[in-house]
Design a protein that fits this description.
It is a single chain. With 543 residues, this protein is of the alpha/beta class. The protein folds into four domains: 226 residues, Rossmann fold (3-Layer(aba) Sandwich); 192 residues, 3-Layer(aba) Sandwich (Rossmann fold), CATH 3.40.50; 33 residues, no CATH class; 37 residues. The chain is 48% helix and 10% strand. Helix 4 packs across helix 14. The N and C termini lie far apart (54 Å). The protein binds 6-O-phosphono-beta-D-fructofuranose. 6-O-phosphono-beta-D-fructofuranose binds next to loops.
Length: 543
């Protein structure tokens, strides 16, 4: 990988000039000047229609952004990633979540060894296990089939599976899925209180099997289970997904019930592995495989398509454009489907844990902005919550609007209303409402001129707010796989250009270390050696 400060590139210099030229320009004028703008700035690929035209760019800016990617060595970086090089240099690991969704006969090498046979073996195990639990062939210790599956994990061992099972709820079978993540005892006990040990299966997911939250919750669940079940029943009701076999065995899980994880898969990119076991249990292995296949299709597109027509590359470049030139502080992701309600929180970990870095790949402090702040909620709920700020606030918030041509229950009346909002919002954000339009509207309502003058500034919308419209065919497992992989590749592209390491997460360590230290002090009265604020808080808590 090239380790270039992006601000020193020729493309960056050109983009700085182009920014000055476009900063005060209205997108609606750009549409008037160029009748082909919408078509020229739209990408179509399989069941994806991605309209970039409501962004504050021109074709020339798009070309400069592509030049930036080229100057920063994106092509080589993509090859290095897919080629199994240890691009996660601070942990000395390759990054090969793409191998998890590759066809059975593919080849992905880690230190000279093809990892695909191992991946295939894990997939067969997931397939067999899921089928036996779903069909009831594998039963609990009293001989009853399983009714409930509890995934215990946090971060990447929770957010991906939660997001996908919510997203694919339409395809779900009879198994009830539950997710316990927080170390808050109220979380685990709230979920356990309604479960029956004899029909509950626990899936403990932790790549490291050292995560405090997960181990505490797993211990609590096992204690709860053992209150009524015989000790030897634990092996029937507890399975684990981890790369730390010895720790899992020490916990008491049968070695046959351990599903593998590998160092070359980052936690937040792991839903495609056995970390997604709860997904496969909830919707069945064939649907899980469709999800993987969709992601693989996006991998191929990302790897082989020119940067000009490459969806993840283009959305990543736009995000850099707003972050580094317009100084946008955050980005919104607004799915127009309730099924994708967890997508924004999933993306928060994926994006912010990956690119929330301030040291470049040369070990130097960066002098430019990196990681985006991501937030969002499904439309139309978000319209009735925070859209006011997007429309008329002081901040520029580029937003992805994700909509579908077809709903799953095929309720045309509802879907047309939903999608009318999807189209209307991006149009409103683009066009705004001029004072002349407001005046006319109020005059038509016979409002007196003096009243109109008073209200005018408040009812005027500047518009010119950037949005990207992703209009997809239908929320199938494959389509979801493509969408999630698209965002994964977006993260990678941005990390390459910002010259940061996207696949480590040292920033979460300090808090973990301090929490362990404070935990040992909590029951000990006496001197506390923290800052005075923390000391006082601790004393107040313990009083
Ligand atoms: O929050 C830090 C982190 O390491 C994440 O990257 C990871 O997804 C999560 O903790 C859980 O880790 P594990 O799967 O090892 O329990």
């Amino acid at each position: 990988m090239k380790n270039i400060d992006p601000t020193t590139t020729e493309a960056w210099k050109k983009l700085s000039k182009q920014f000055q030229e476009i900063e005060n320009r209205e997108m609606k004028d750009l549409f008037l000047e160029d009748k082909d703008r919408a078509a020229d700035l739209t990408l179509q690929w399989k069941d994806f229609y991605v309209d970039l035209s409501k962004n504050r760019i021109t074709k020339d800016i798009q070309n400069s952004l592509v030049n930036l990617a080229e100057e920063c060595g994106l092509k080589e970086a993509i090859e290095a990633q897919f080629g199994g090089e240890a691009i996660n240099q601070t942990e000395n690991r390759p990054v090969l979540h793409t191998a998890l969704r590759a066809p059975e006969n593919s080849e992905f090498f880690v230190e000279g060894e093809n990892v695909i046979p191992e991946v295939n073996k894990a997939k067969s195990k997931i397939r067999k296990f899921s089928a036996e639990i779903i069909s009831g062939a594998t039963k609990g210790y009293t001989g009853m089939p399983f009714t409930d599956v509890v995934n215990i994990g946090i971060g990447g061992s929770d957010l991906g599976p939660v997001m996908v099972t919510k997203a694919l709820e339409f395809y779900k079978n009879h198994l009830n899925l539950h997710y316990i993540s927080n170390v808050d005892g109220d979380h685990v006990h709230e979920i356990l209180k309604d479960l029956k040990p004899e029909t509950t299966l626990f899936v403990i997911v932790s790549k490291t099997f050292t995560t405090q939250e997960t181990l505490s919750n797993a211990n609590t669940a096992r204690d709860w289970f053992k209150k009524t079940a015989p000790v030897d029943a634990v092996s029937k009701h507890f399975v684990a997904v981890s790369s730390n076999i010895s720790q899992v065995e020490e916990f008491g899980i049968d070695s046959n019930n351990i599903f593998p994880m590998w160092d070359w898969v980052g936690g937040r990119f792991s839903l495609w592995s056995a970390v997604g076991l709860s997904i496969s249990l909830g919707v069945g292995y064939p649907q899980f495989e469709e999800l993987l296949d969709g992601a693989h299709q996006m991998d191929q597109h990302f790897k082989n398509e020119t940067f000009e027509k490459n969806i993840p590359v283009q959305i990543a470049l736009l995000s850099i454009w707003y972050n580094n030139f317009f100084k946008a502080e955050s980005e919104a992701v607004i799915p127009y489907t309730q099924y994708l309600q967890k997508l924004p929180s999933y993306l928060q970990q994926a994006i912010m844990e990956s690119n929330g870095k301030s040291v470049d790949r040369n070990g130097k402090k960066v002098t430019y902005q990196t990681g985006n702040i991501i937030w969002g909620e499904p439309g139309t709920n978000s319209q009735h919550a925070f859209f006011q700020l997007i429309h008329q606030g002081t901040k520029l918030i580029p937003a992805d609007f994700i909509g579908f041509k077809h709903s799953l229950f095929k309720d045309k009346d509802h879907h047309d209303k939903l999608m009318a909002n999807y189209f209307a919002q991006t149009e409103a954000l683009l066009m705004g409402k001029t004072s002349d339009e407001v005046k006319q509207e109020l005059k038509d309502k016979h409002m007196p001129d003096s009243e109109i003058e008073k209200l005018l500034p408040f009812k005027t919308f500047d518009g010119n707010k950037p949005t990207t419209s992703l209009l997809l065919e239908r929320l199938t497992p494959a389509c979801l796989g493509k969408l999630v992989a698209m965002y994964e590749h977006k993260i990678f592209v941005q990390g390459v250009i910002w010259n940061i390491f996207s696949y480590d997460q040292w920033g979460v360590e300090l808090g973990k270390q301090l929490a362990s230290k404070i935990l040992t002090e909590i029951d000990k009265p006496g001197i506390r050696e923290h800052d005075t604020s923390t000391n006082n808080l601790l004393n107040f808590y313990l009083d």
